Each structure stands twice: as C-alpha cells, then as structure tokens.
C-alpha cells in the first residue's frame, strides 16, 4: 500500500512540475498577445478545469471585468462579464481578501449573486491575481470532488503566470506589444504599434489615430465583415477573429488576421476593443480553397455512414468559414431529415425545428420553408446576407447570413446543407466557389452512405429475425440474453443463442458460433438453431441432441463448421448437464460471489468428425447461482490469450450484483471490442418455491397390465393425500394405458405428476403415431371411445414427441 501511495504522490508531483514547465515556456514569449490565453489553457490540461477566466479591474476601478477565458462557454455556469468589486461574488471576495475562495454546488445554488440556477452541478474556486492592478483567476470543475490539492497548486502557478501582463493593460494607455491595438468604441480613436502600421503600409508620423483611416485601406468586399467587429452594436463580450485584405501600392491585396476582444469599460467609461493584427498571407497556404476541398474529399472517401458524411462536412466548413451553425439533412420525399446538427443543442435552432424534434434530430417539412424548397428545385447554392427577408425557420438559422447548399447526386437532390452566422458575414467570391465545390462532393458521398445505412439496417433486421424475439418465462429461474453485431463491415455473423423450455421443469440453454461472417454463416446458424431446438423438444438427452446436430451438419456437406455449448438445467433439482462442441465452457457465479469456469469436458466442433463423442459433465447449481454462456467475441481480442479473457469475464461476473441480470449483461458487454460478433446468455437459478410430486411405473405387457397400472395410480394418489376424483383419474389411466398396449409395441411407461391441485397423467410408448380423435362413433362401433372419454373428464390433453416415440398426456383438476 505504501508503494501505491508513493507512486500516486509521485504522479501528482510530476503533474505539477509539468504545469510549471509549460508555464515557463509560455512566459518566455512576453510579447505574444496570446500568452495569457495559452496560460489559461494549462488549467484545462493540468488542473482538470472545464472553464477558467481572468477578471481585472476596469477603468473606473469599480468593476472586475472579464478579460480572457478558456474552456466551455461561461454561460453554462451563469457567470457574468463583470462583477462589482464591493459585491459578494467569489471573484470580488477573492480580490478584496487576497486569498482563495471555494464554493461547491450547494453553496453556489444559494449564493445571492447567482444570475440563474445553472443546469449542471459544478465546483468553483477564485484565486487572487497579484500585480498589474490585481484581479482574480476563476476556475470551474465539473468533477464530483472538485479541485484536489494538486489541482489548486497548478491554479496557483497559473494565477502567478497571468499576473505578468494582463490584457486589460492594453486599455490603460501603457506600451502596446508588437502588432497590438486598442480601440475606443465611443470615439473610434485607436492606438497601434509601428509593426501594425507597417502591415497597412502607413507611415507612423502621418497616421492620424482614426480607425476610419485603417478601414479605408481594406478591400471593399471585406469591409462589412470588418465593420461587424469594430462597431459596438455588433460586438459582445468575448473573442472575435477574422481575416481580411488590405490594398497594396502594387500587386495583389495582402491578407491580415485580426484577433480581438471587447473589454467593458464600466460606469462612465467606454468599452474598448483590444487585440492584435498579424500577417496571414503565409498562414493561408494550408487553408486555401483547394486544400479545403481536398481535405473534404479525403474525409468523405472514408466516411461510411450518413452520420460520418455529416461530421466530415461540418469539420471541413464550420471552422474555416467561422460559421455559428451547420445542419446537414437528407431529402426524403417532402421532408428534410436532419442527420447532423452542430451545435447539437435544440435551443440554438429555430422553433419550427424544435417542434419537429421526433428523435435524436428533427425532420422538418420542406413545404414549411418555401425559400429552401425553391433552392432545392434550382439545384444551386443560394446565399442570403444579414437582413434578408426569409421565413423565421430559416432566418433564425443565420441572422447574420445564411447559405443553403443543395447536395446533388446524379440527376436528383440527395439533401441540403445549411450554414448560418449570428453576426453579419460577408460572402466573398472564393467562399461561394468553396461552397459549390463542397456541395457536389457531399451529395455523392451522402448517396453512398445512405445505401450503406440501408444495407446495414437490412443486415441487422435479418440478424434479429434469426435470433429469438423474446426469452420464455421459467419457473424458478430468470434468463436474459444480449447480442452485439460486429462493427467491422456489413457481413452477417454466425453467433446465436436459445432458451428452450422442456418437460418436467427442465430448460435447455444453447449458445453457438458458426465459422465466418457471411450470408452462408448466418443461414447455417439459423439451421443449427432450428435443428438443436427440434432435437431437444423430442426429449433426447443433451449428448444425443448435440450428436444429432453434428450428424446433420456433416450430411449437409457444408464447408463451414460450428461450435456450441448445450446446458440442460433441472429447475426442480438444481442440477445441470453440460455438453460442449468446441465451444467455451460456462462460467458459474455462486451465491457467495465466487466464480468458477466449469470443468466441462468437450468434444470437437460440429461438422468436423462424423462419429464424434460429446461427453456430458454434471453441474451443481445452489439457489442464486448464475450461469454465463458467451461466444469468443466477448473474451478474445487480438494479442491476448482467450484464457485471460475468460478469467477477466469471471472477475467481472464476480463483481456484478446478480439481482438485475439485465444490468449484469450490460456491464459484461461494456468493454466488448466489437471486432467480432458477441452473444451472451445468462441464467440465474433461484429454485422452485413449489416442487411437483412425481412417480413413474413401467407397464409390462401381461394380461393384468391395466389393472396393475390402476392399482399403482391409486396407491400413489393415496400416499399424496388425494381423495377426490380418484375414479376419473383411474378412468384416464385405463384408457391411455389400454391404447398404448393395443396400438403400439415395445416399452410403455406411466408418469404421474401433481402440483397444487393439477394432476398430469402421461403415457409414453415407442410409436411416433399420435392417437386420432374420432369425428363420430356409431352404436355398433367396438372402439374409439377411449380418447373421447379422456377428453370428457380431463381439463386438457395432448401428445408430444419423445426420444424414440411419443407421450400422450392428460391433465385433471382435482377437487373442483
């Protein structure tokens, strides 16, 4: 135990050292405007934070304003852009007291500063930031235990790192880093460094400090998107990034990249846009339109399902286009069936889409969006800038701009891709060409993927039809089964299972696997399952059932073989016989939690040797025992021994709580590799609350055979305490025994079974022919009345095949 503790401590210490090394590497680049953001990202890596932010005092000194953040959106936790320095928020308390403040879910729910009740539980810690006017580092964790000691050490290192140069310094009139700018949103006055002016081709001496001068240098087509950033009406607290072009005295325009953040100014002070501008001409070589199309084509070449196609399109378009929403949908008749939404949350999509949200995704009627229907009829990409008159179901997808890409496939439309922006977006010529090229690739891939999904569904449906729809209810036991098809390819698997109720409260558990993955393997699987069920119902013992199936497979002259395990469980006695034909042995979990891999002797697989022996091995089942039968797909993985897999299965079965077998089965399948089919069959033997009384009598072919049978039946009933309806029972015994002696040859056996007040009389003989109930009997007839008498005095009667003959039975309700 000491070694384990020391190793854990060493690992945590190593994590802190790694965080310190990463922050030192970031601190080397003091002039980088991205340094603070990169430092905050280390909290996501080394402290396990879901969100982290820096708040620094605003210009009026009365507010602590958000200046940089990393992680998931802060709105998920109800966090604000700013907090009063004199308030009771964790940010303000940590800043004033100069010490960390921590809160758990219960404290946060009761906190007076909460703007709303968050939709998730989380832990929050606020640490003071010393230097540059102070501030606060705020971190959020969604882990149940929150931040541990080493997480807090990492956060302390990060709070020291971000104190060196806070982004708010850009708004305070200090020296600007290279390429940085600070724009007053109320006056349009901008402070810039000499390097930024060099990018625009302006002389620092002649620059008048007005943002309009810089905007006048941009390409006219890029001016609307740039204005959407520098105008306060279109900005919200947070990051903004875009690429734009500036005119050059000679040659083509130069590409620049702007990264900015709006900082609140507080009461009486204007907000300021701070950020950097960098040369992006060298960065665009790997994100050209041709490269984007090539990357999309490569991704679509490996996309198999419709969902894969949608994800590839989203990955290829959303980030390069800086879109806020992308939806990919198939066109099925008059409905648009959505297959991928990014982001996936329903609340960010139009109301019409939410009302049509029938499953995982919506499927909206095309007629409700006439503009979209017209675009699909035309078959070409359509673009609507901000403010275009559109129906609400489309306008809410992209209030700042909307692009609709019909996805053509041959001479028809396979679907559509909708791309929306929240802020005004300018659509350049290169962007339009990119969208058109991507639409053609996506349409063809969507048709291929739809065919794959349809074939996969057909394969799954066929596989399900070959397996039992439901398992029977058993007296004194519960059975559950699971089947997982392989995720590799479309071929059918050969794994199967079956649960067969047998007479005298026996049940047969069967699991098997046919060699290979093909339609032939699935067909043979269905034949083997049917054959084993037929042989079992005939009443053969387990070894004979498996031997018959082996001979049948040999006679079929198939190139495939099969393995199977057959377990005949006596639910009355709590015992079982197991037969293995090249299959894995059962795993037993006993009531005390101990597990055992049954030592059941095995025979060869079915279809290999004509004259093969399949020995039976006994199993004892105390009440509460669980029997687990599996195929090799669950326990065998590449590079590992199958015996190790069986040991792992036994270990997981020992840890499971057997009260709910369904949960046990799901837990055992949790780590399945899915490179092969997996079948799992579990039975928990609980024991029968009421065991029937049984007696048997061999009827010898002597002149007084019927009388002997009647006397045996009378003595048995009296020993059981039965006094009512004895005459009716003796009549049934007489008629059934007489029929067997007169119409059959060989041995005759009588079985009497009593459970509650129901008595079952069963006569077994060596003839497979069932007795025929006569349609009518005349007065002169000398026979044929026996079955009619049995039918008259019995509640029910019937026949069933048994090994080497049949059994005629009748049930009587005593003491009615």
UniProtKB/TrEMBL annotation:
This is SpoIIE family protein phosphatase. Keywords: Hydrolase. Residues 240-292 form the PAC domain. It comes from Streptomyces coeruleorubidus. InterPro entries: Bact_Sigma-Reg, GAF, GAF-like_dom_sf, HATPase_C_sf, HATPase_dom, PAS, PAS-assoc_C, PAS-like_dom_sf. PROSITE patterns: PAC. It comes from the Bacteria.
